[in-house]
Amino acid sequence: MSNSHDYKALRREYLAEPLQRETLQDDPVAQFAHWLQQATEVSPDDATSMTLATASASGMPSARIVLLKHFDQEGFAWYTDYESQKGRELAENPQAELMFYWYGLERQVRVQGRVERLSPAQAEQYFNERPFGSRLSAAASHQSQVVDSRATLERQVEQLKQRHPDENLPRPQRWGGYRLVPSKFEFWQGRENRLHDRFRYTLTEQGWQIDRLQP
């Protein structure tokens, strides 16, 4: 008989300021930028952490935390190994959702849309901006592939380091960037008694349509 773990009594109250239609910006990217700036002031180390949810061609979902590296009106960008699980799933099904959660502000943002690869030039620029240790790890590791031990990984990193003492390490062709081009946003603000504020932006031919959703 397995042990039962019951957390029904574990709860908290949301007491943040309300989110109202008249305070929302008409452009969701501008609204996101405003909220992200506030999040960086509260917890700068975690503000750009986001859950990236992808799905295989058969529809099996998977999710993991990645870091937002830059965004603009064209979309939200991150970098990874094209041959990783998320890379393979995006090749099969180039759609995804991003989810940001900012605990100190009691806020969530969901961003949904199609995904495209960034140009090799953009990947090259960002790769060369990374610390040498991060570049070594990206080049040495075949992300999501089975490895027999950590010692093997460390040996692969050390071998690369010895081959590039000048730190002039080329970007692996399997490593690059992605951009999610948004078609839908949801801004969620926690409120008292779980009567949360939720606003959805949906891209239409006339622009962004904004609707309040029930919690």
Please supply descriptive tags for the structure shown above.
9-stranded antiparallel sheet; single chain; alpha+beta; Pnp Oxidase, Chain A; 9 strands; 215 residues
What's this, in brief?
With 215 residues, the chain is of the alpha+beta class.
Layout of SSEs?
Elements (H helix, E strand, L loop, with lengths): L27 H15 L6 E7 L5 E7 L2 E3 L2 E7 L3 H8 L2 E8 L4 E11 L2 H10 L2 H9 L9 H14 L11 E15 L7 E8 L2 E7 L2
Antiparallel strand pairs: 1-2, 1-5, 3-4, 4-7, 5-6, 6-7, 7-8, 8-9
Helix pairs in contact: 4-5
Could you walk me through the main structural features you see in this protein, from its secondary elements to its overall organization?
The chain has 215 residues and is of the alpha+beta class. The chain has one domain: Electron Transport, Fmn-binding Protein, Chain A (Pnp Oxidase, Chain A). The protein has helices at 28-42, 85-92, 120-129, 132-140, 150-163, and strands spanning 49-55, 61-67, 70-72, 75-81, 95-102, 107-117, 175-189, 197-204, 207-213. The protein is globular and about 60 Å long. The model has no long low-confidence stretch (mean pLDDT 94).
